[in-house]
Amino acid sequence: MVIKVFVATSSGSTAIKKKQQEVVGFLEANKIDFQQMDIAGDEDNRKWMRENVPGEKKPQNGIPLPPQIFNEERYCGDFESFFSAKEENIIYSFLGLTPPPGTKVCTAV
């Protein structure tokens, strides 16, 4: 299973760049394998991301902005969902991954 993070390498938005850096930095720091999928330079990546973000997760204009996170074909969420999962210490379940041995795992009560 591969985590795919859809990013725009040439985004003009500082806010988007910071969100992308936070997601990528967190995954790297926690040694979680992932692939960055550039939507700015690859039309196929952009089309795939837009088609696979669930309708209820798309903004009003219908165009989801990066970063968008998938586990293979399964949609995990956008930056806000990622941030919430990180804050609640449920990032592995958010990503659909088995936590490494010795990882503290919070479960819903």
Automatic annotation (TrEMBL):
Look up the domain of life of the source: Eukaryota
Gene Ontology CC: one annotated term: nucleus
Q: Which InterPro entries match?
A: Glut_rich_SH3-bd (IPR006993), SH3BGR (IPR051033), Thioredoxin-like_sf (IPR036249)
Per its UniProt record, what SUPFAM superfamilies does this chain match? Thioredoxin-like
Q: Does the keyword Ubl conjugation apply?
A: no
A GO term, aspect molecular function: SH3 domain binding
Coiled-coil parts of chain: none
| Keywords from the named record | SH3-binding
Query: Keyword Ribosomal protein on this protein?
Result: no
Give the matching Pfam families: SH3BGR
Which Gene3D superfamilies did the record assign? Glutaredoxin
Q: Which family does it belong to?
A: Belongs to the SH3BGR family.
Name of the molecule in the record: SH3 domain-binding glutamic acid-rich protein
